[in-house]
Amino acid sequence: MAAVQEYDCIVIGAGVQGSFTAHQLAKNNKNTLLLEQFILPHTRGSSHGQTRIIRKAYEQNIYTHMMEECYKLWAQLETDAGVQLYRQTGLLLMGPQNNHSYKQFKKNLQNNKVPMVLLNNDIFSQQIPYMNLPDGYEALVDLTAGVLYADRAIKAVQEQFQKLGGVIRDKEMVTDIKPGPVVTVSTSACVYRTKSIVITAGPWANKLLTHTGLQLPLQVVKINVCYWKEKVPSLYSLKQGFPCFILTEGEDSNHDIYGLPSNEYPGLVKICYHMGKETDPDQRDKQTDRSDIDILQRFIRRCLPGLVPEPAVVESCMYTVMASNLDL
């Protein structure tokens, strides 16, 4: 085993949270090591895939406030890396008129003076063709929202981190953490010492925390990331101006349904249920529950007649959530 190496900070987990944390530490002149148990890039965690939604529309006001700074940081990373990471599409938000969640989204956007448009039924059918607004539902558009190019963003921030002198070690599983004034981190390849450690390991957080004697009320769920075929090519495409969307919890589901325009796979629209069933992160693919897909099929038959109501592609992602949030 190699000699002990010392760093100001060590970040464990090179997904989006860990990579951006390491980048900020390096920008603040901290000699930083970023550890990852898998070979980069990989599809085992929560940060892979080509696209994510970025928005100011949140149920919790603190997130809407945070997004002001986030948009500036994304723009700065685009400039530093010379790569487009964000494309503005708007976010269509739909929900039952008297639904608490929908009303909270709307209230936060209004209170924070976020540019938005309210859509009545007549305007909805003109502005959002090939999509049906359920009876008794309202709709609005967060005009600031759009698509983040996720894989591209991870690559860009890791490259910027390395340009600042940061070190990335992938395929190094952490095998032990010894707390103290100086923390000792042992991996499958080396031993490191540091005064500060950040654990951004998502589904593996509690496994790592076991070494410290701590545990958090976290549970890991597997999300079926579903792509649905357009009956007519480009009907719901980014090029045609179809927005990202969120349908808040309603009569058919206890959690949100979200979607992004066709882009990653030509002719396929990403639509997912914002929750899943509990899984072991090291045995993710053994969990085969499809109850979320049943919910999505009912939604697509009712609201998106231009899609084939059977997923053409199903990929996997994992969320790490507080234990109380699991009910489908």
Order of helices and strands: EHEEHEEHEHEEHEEEEHEEEEEHE
How many strands, which pairing sense, and closed or not: the largest β-sheet?
9 strands, mixed
Mean pLDDT: 94
Considering the protein shown, what is the CATH homologous superfamily of the largest domain?
D-Amino Acid Oxidase, subunit A, domain 2
Task: Indicate the low-confidence ranges by residue numbers.
Answer: none
Q: Tell me the overall shape.
A: globular
- Which topology of the largest domain does CATH recognise? D-Amino Acid Oxidase, Chain A, domain 2
Number of strands: 18
Q: Tally the helices: what do you get?
A: 7
Query: What CATH architecture of the largest domain do you see?
Result: 2-Layer Sandwich
Radius of gyration of CA atoms, rounded to a whole number: 21 Å
Bin the strand percentage.
25-35%
**Which range best describes the helical content: under 10%, 10-25%, 25-40%, 40-55%, 55-70% or over 70%?**
25-40%
Count of folded domains: 2
- Give me the secondary-structure category: alpha+beta
- Cα-to-Cα separation, first versus last residue: 47 Å
| Name of the CATH class of the largest domain | Alpha Beta
Which structural traits does this protein have?
7 helices; alpha+beta; six-stranded mixed sheet; FAD/NAD(P)-binding domain; D-Amino Acid Oxidase, Chain A, domain 2; 328 residues; nine-stranded mixed sheet
Question: What would your notes on this structure say?
Answer:
This protein is of the alpha+beta class and 328 residues long. The protein has two domains: 5-47 and 151-216, FAD/NAD(P)-binding domain, CATH 3.50.50.60; 88-148 and 219-322, D-Amino Acid Oxidase, Chain A, domain 2 (2-Layer Sandwich). α1 runs parallel beside α5 and α2 packs across α5 (150-163). The chain is built from seven helices and 18 strands. It is globular and about 70 Å long. Strands 5, 6, 7, 13, 14, 15, 16, 17 and 18 form a nine-stranded mixed sheet that branches. The chain has a six-stranded mixed sheet with strand order 9-2-1-12-11-10. A hairpin with a 4-residue loop joins β10 (174-178) and β11 (183-187). Helices cover 26% and strands 32% of the residues. InterPro entries: FAD-dep_OxRdtase (IPR006076), FAD/NAD-bd_sf (IPR036188), MTOX (IPR045170). Its cofactor is FAD. This is Peroxisomal sarcosine oxidase.
